[in-house]
Amino acid sequence: MHLIQVDSVQRWMEDLKLMTDCECMCILQSKPISIEKDEQNELILSSQYSPCDNLQLLLKRAWIISTELTRIAQKLEKNRWQRVHSMTVRVNCHVRSMINEYNTFTRSSSEGMHQLEKLLVDKCSEFTAFTERCLQTEDEEILKSMKSCVNEILTTVAQCFGQLIELVLTQEAQSLLRQIELSGSLYITESAISSLFSLAQEGAHLCRIIAKEGGVVALFKICRQDCFRCLYPQTLRTLASICCVEEGMHQLEKVDGILCLSDILTDTSHSEATHAEAAAVIAQITSPHLTFTQHLSSFLENMEEIVTALVKLCQEASSGEVFLLASAALANITFFDTMACEILLQLNAVKILLAACSDKHIVDTPYSRDQVVTILANMSVLDQCASEIIQGNGVQLLMEMLFEKSSSGNPAEVAACERVQQKSAVTLARLSRDPEVAEAAVKFSCIPRLIKLCRSPTERNNSDSVLVACLAALRRLAVMSPGGLEDSDFQQLVKPRLVDSFLLCTNMEESFV
What we know:
The chain is mostly helical. Among the domains are: about 50-170, Four Helix Bundle (Hemerythrin (Met), subunit A) (Up-down Bundle); about 405-510. The protein has helices spanning about 10-25, 50-75, 80-105, 110-135, 140-180, 185-200, 205-210, 215-220, 230-240, 245-255, 255-265, 270-285, 295-300, 305-315, 320-335, 340-345, 350-355, 365-380, 385-390, 395-400, 410-430, 435-445, 445-455, 465-480, 485-495, 500-505. The chain is flat and about 85 Å long. This is INSC protein. Pfam families: Insc_C, INSC_LBD. GO terms for molecular function: cytoskeletal anchor activity.
């Protein structure tokens, strides 16, 4: 389940209605409240929500049940039988409430679904009855033998619950995809895509279900119909979410999705929002963190057109978000083929990226600077890149990036700042093989800053990767400009083996009392 970390009191407030509903069911001995066919009962939670909200309610209830089952196993391990029984009663109530809620907003449950529901309810009742018998037994030996039976029933309940949730989510995905494929209505299609996107946000497992049910195929079908042009951004955003899993990538390959993305990016009649969301899909499927790369063969066939379109999008971006998506896609592409770097050089991408960095409205976060310096670092392996960097005043920009600091203290932003510092040092190290770049680096006082980053752990947020990159850059600059270092810096940071200098710098923050 996709969970947002929130304050515990806020979480309690959100769960309160579900929990009080559960307590009402306990008082009624877990007997569901009957509903007249022609009336809407105010006690049914789902009656006040839309279908998408109903699904969120179901997922929240499922999360509560899953958490309770885990806690039962923990209490059982400690032989806390009273707690085990009370929690079992609570799970029993939650399961019945979840099934009742789901059936109120879903009128087309399959026979298999009903059988699973009945099996789960029966197992929960059996579980509750068995734990009640355990409470009435004081003999330790008998309890020991009963404990293994309780564990077996708990395992069975968990398995039935998992199968039911899997079936429910599969059925919901199928229903939404049928709406997308069969409806000619713009409103219905938009609503179904929106619900599908919400479902995909619940995590990788949901994305796998959607992909297996043909979600990627259905969404690319939308992206190939002009009558749905206004839905392209929303559709592409959903595709980016689903393609984080291998099953989504396989489907993308089958429907020639990369060619479709290339066509969208190169079609100037599309809006900037559409181009940006297409760039987001490219960034997702080219992520260096993905272990599956079968789709990259077809990507290489369209790479020149895609890279050209992404550079143009960076150049013409009207906002920081658009630039971030386009530059992230370019950064990922430069990781898996050096041909991409050569194409970027031909397109004057270095000049365009450096110019964008001077516009604080466009490159306005450490995340954007992280993408830019990633591209520069990967391009710096090419000899021609050095002259482009010099002409665009890129050495000064790299120097400024060595000072990157988080203003909010947010962990993700802090990590991005570390990456910016590390990659700017790596880029300087690679480019400083060119005497002109090394001379510019000395001129902009890069050496004192690199020394500071090596010697002061707080300046680099105690990052070892930043330290190694700075030591490497410092050693390269020391070769090109040996007069820029004091003797103590040379003796400690340049002359020893890299590992010895690294150990010296990492021990500087230690205090012995």
